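for the recovery benchmark. tokens below, seq after
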């Protein structure tokens, strides 16, 4: 069944909800709302990756995410920490996180060892360039083939650092060094990524390509986000990273039986 990861951005500058949950109390309350709305995992991050976002020190990133992780993990929520810094990941795992979501796919040379030692889950994401430069005219010969090759290489790096292959999820990095057409093509060809044998994560929620296609501002992209996510599931995605958890869960609950992905309703169950 599809896993829904609800986004908790403890940042002043995230592209869609920057500043709303910078305060720990507000972030914790938001995380609880997302669990009530049906999130399976909360993805908690303290540094925005949008083009031009300010860099955050290890100390500041820890100060943002650790109290939020501690409180939500104490509630029993499954937590992933959205960080590319091994030191932040280690502290987050100590505070109760179970998964490291690394948008640089082990760009920090210590990250593989930290994850191997913890035995945690690990999300490896594709990005072309760095957040500062990634949207400056990205060019690929074949975006799907290049993303697939990159993810296969980083999966090998993770396993050679001692990470259990069964704990790794792969993510094409929607919006990270991709044009609108690249993003659409990647969503259309998720089947090529699932061939790598690991669950595929898709983070398309409210992203710019949806704004370009629909002409809608970031707070009015829910329809485009849901269409993208349902098609991603139809094409093989196993995990969706989303802001609008309740609506996505409802959409997936309807899409899955149509796709033949759920057990048939028990005989006599009310439909
Ligand atoms: N996208 C963002 C951040 N982290 N992680 C994964 N695995 N996949 C993604 O597509 C992904 C991610 C960007 O979205 P958001 O967190 O809403 O914004 P910001 O980076 O501005 O905080």
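predicted aa per position
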């Amino acid at each position: 069944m599809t896993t829904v990861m609800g986004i908790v951005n403890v940042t002043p500058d995230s592209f869609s909800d920057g500043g709303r949950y910078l305060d720990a109390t507000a972030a914790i309350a938001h995380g609880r709302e997302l669990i009530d709305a049906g999130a399976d995992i909360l993805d908690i991050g303290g540094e925005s990756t949008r083009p031009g976002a300010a860099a955050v020190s290890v100390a500041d990133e820890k100060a943002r995410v650790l109290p939020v992780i501690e409180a939500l993990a104490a509630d029993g929520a499954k937590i992933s920490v959205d960080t590319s810094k091994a030191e932040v990941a280690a502290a987050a795992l100590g505070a109760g996180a179970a998964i490291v979501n690394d948008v640089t796919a082990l760009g920090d040379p210590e990250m593989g060892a930290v994850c191997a030692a913890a035995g945690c889950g690990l999300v490896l994401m594709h990005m072309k360039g760095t957040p500062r430069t990634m949207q400056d005219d990205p060019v690929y010969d074949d975006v799907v083939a290049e993303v697939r090759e990159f993810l296969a290489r980083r999966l090998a790096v993770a396993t050679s650092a001692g990470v259990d292959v069964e704990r790794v999820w792969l993510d094409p990095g929607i919006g990270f060094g991709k044009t609108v057409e690249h993003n659409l093509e990647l969503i259309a060809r998720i089947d090529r990524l699932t061939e790598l044998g690991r669950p595929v994560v898709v983070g398309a929620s409210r992203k710019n390509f949806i704004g370009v296609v629909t002409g809608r501002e970031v707070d009015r992209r829910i329809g485009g986000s849901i269409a993208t996510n349902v098609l991603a599931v139809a094409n093989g995605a196993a995990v969706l990273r989303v802001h609008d958890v309740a609506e996505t869960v409802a959409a997936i609950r309807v899409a899955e039986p149509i796709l033949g992905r759920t057990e048939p309703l028990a005989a006599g169950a009310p439909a």
